[in-house]
Write a structure and sequence with these properties.
A hairpin with an 8-residue loop joins strand 1 and strand 2. This protein has helices at about 5-10, 55-70, 80-85, 85-100, 135-155, 160-165, 170-180, 195-199, and strands at about 15-20, 30-35, 70-75, 110, 120-125. It has one domain (about 5-150): Ribonuclease H-like superfamily/Ribonuclease H (Nucleotidyltransferase, domain 5). The radius of gyration is 17 Å and the shape is elongated. It is an alpha/beta fold.
């Protein structure tokens, strides 16, 4: 999990930011990104791709990462931005925002599967959250941040079951859209919402 990091550390690069996003697929809410710079000698075997962890473990590791990271930056693109410029561009925009929100300027970026238009050397890694500790840490921070937002939204609109579906298009979520309508936080460019809006 530190192969990419160690290669850079060996070249004398100290500040490496792992970057990941969460929320590209859901029908509602923002895409959330995180950039995390870990100390050179840091390792915790519990940190892995957030998708492989339970909610309880993610919450625990969120605190562990926040305590140990040299810097953490969060970026977001709202559903309006997603509808305006498309999900990929909105993701990149949020990733650059996360980097800019770091308190330390990174010397190198390790990014999960995309390339960013930013003046910092970078390595794009396919399935990076399973191959890099820094990206895995970023995936946990981004996931917990977004999930907490959806849990808050669930309190306002419990009939959509956001607490459980986290905004993905589950049967219950789609049924609620058909019964109660579309919320301002819904992504109007995503199906089936696009077709419902177009009716």
């Amino acid at each position: 999990m530190k192969e990419f990091e160690n290669e850079l550390y060996n070249k004398g690069i100290k500040y490496i930011a792992g970057i990941d996003e969460v929320g590209r697929g859901p029908l509602i809410g923002p895409v959330v990104t995180a950039a995390v710079i870990l100390p050179v000698d840091y390792f915790d075997e519990r940190i892995q791709d957030s998708k492989k962890l339970t909610e309880k473990k993610r919450e625990l590791l969120y605190d562990v990462i926040m305590e140990n990271a040299l810097s953490v930056g969060i970026g977001m693109s709202s559903n309006e931005v997603i509808d305006d410029i498309n999900i990929l561009e909105a993701t990149k925009k949020a990733m650059i925002e996360a980097v800019n929100n770091l308190s330390i300027k990174p010397e190198h970026l390790l990014i999960d599967a995309v390339k960013l238009d930013i003046d910092i050397p970078q390595t794009s890694i396919i399935k990076g959250d399973a191959k890099s500790l820094s990206i895995a840490a970023a995936s946990i921070i981004a996931k917990v941040t977004r999930d907490r937002m959806l849990i808050e939204l669930d309190k306002k609109h419990p009939e959509y079951d956001f607490k459980h579906n986290k905004g993905y298009g589950t049967k219950k979520h789609i049924e609620a859209i058909n019964k109660y309508g579309i919320l301002k936080e819904h992504r109007k460019s995503f199906e089936p919402i696009k077709s419902i809006v177009g009716k």
